[in-house]
Amino acid sequence: xxxxxxxxxxxxxxxxxxxxxxxxxxxxxxxxxxxxxxxxxxxxxxxxxxxxxxxxxxxxxxxxxxxxxxxxxxxxxxxxxxxxxxxxxxxxxxxxxxxxxxxxxxxxxxxxxxxxxxxxxxxxxxxxxxxxxxxxxxxxxxxxxxxxxxxxxxxxxxxxxxxxxxxxxxxxxxxxxxxxxxxxxxxxxxxxxxxxxxxxxxxxxxxxxxxxxxxxxxxxxxxxxxxxxxxxxxxxxxxxxxxxxxxxxxxxxxxxxx
Amino acid sequence: xxxxxxxxxxxxxxxxxxxxxxxxxxxxxxxxxxxxxxxxxxxxxxxxxxxxxxxxxxxxxxxxxxxxxxxxxxxxxxxxxxxxxxxxxxxxxxxx
Lengths: 258, 96
Fold this sequence. Notes:
The complex is a heterodimer. Chain A is an all-alpha fold. Chain A has one domain (10-252): Ferritin, core subunit, four-helix bundle (Ferritin, Up-down Bundle). Chain A is built from 11 helices and no strands. The model of chain A has no long low-confidence stretch (mean pLDDT 96). By secondary structure, chain B is α+β, with helices and mostly antiparallel strands. Chain B is built from 2 helices and 3 strands. Chain B has helices at 33-44, 69-73, and strands at 9-15, 23-29, 52-57. Chain B has a 3-stranded antiparallel sheet with strand order 2-1-3. In chain B, a hairpin with a 7-residue loop joins strand 1 and strand 2 (23-29). The longest helix of chain B is centred in the middle third of the chain and has 12 residues, at 33-44. The termini of chain B are far apart. The mean pLDDT of chain B is 88. Chain A binds chain B through residues 40, 42, 45-46, 49, 142, 145-146, 149, 153, and chain B through 7, 28-31, 34-35, 38-39, 41-43, 46.
């Protein structure tokens, strides 16, 4: 804790919460696309259960962000009425589902990140965020178990399944960089003890994913220079289409409820 | 299984809460027992139905032959004295 840095403003704290919330919300929407299409009905339910956990996390975090912001925006207003550049999710979460292996790789990379994140947010100086994290961390432990279990099955499965998830990992790996690349907002909330030090999160995350990659006989891709910053509102071309689906009803029928 | 690429069937037993026994609730397909537990969790405990899960390969269950049901069960039909209906059950016993 530094005595020189001013505490983050309420607006900044709200933006920090939206980063966490939007990653969960957008990923929930992606997982929801599997309903009716998963390889087995049991996986259909498994993916939907994870989606609902993520949606629940997003709701709690967005409600709180709206209160901090103090502009009268509810969780629904934040979810359904913000435009693309105002969404602060990590780019990885908005990438299309691809095949089941792509979805599992994307899920595992994010689940492992969220687990390291929530395990630290439990000790946040922001008591309400700490409470939300305490609930979310239990859900996330199961998510990691699910996605890492599948990654090991596919990676250490047949020659084809191994080749395909290794390829998924190569394609998705570059998007993990922004999760740990601390910007001014990340540093300010870490300084205030609200959020974790992302270097520490990164080191713990690498240990966790490396252990699973080893079991799955997958090799960790090398880092590349290309960077994504969805968490700063600069998104891939995929988010707009996702939001069109997510927001259509509230945009077409403002205030509709049932 | 006619198609051996299909996942085998597992029978699922759930304990609703501590102190009760595991009850059969249905079945799921899964590649192995570990996956069967996860599938059972996702399919059968979404509404807090349980605190413990058992899974058993359906093919490992040995069942009685329906054709033998007369021989197996008919003889018990006229032996009403085997029912403990001649005792008063104490009110304190809840889950008998």
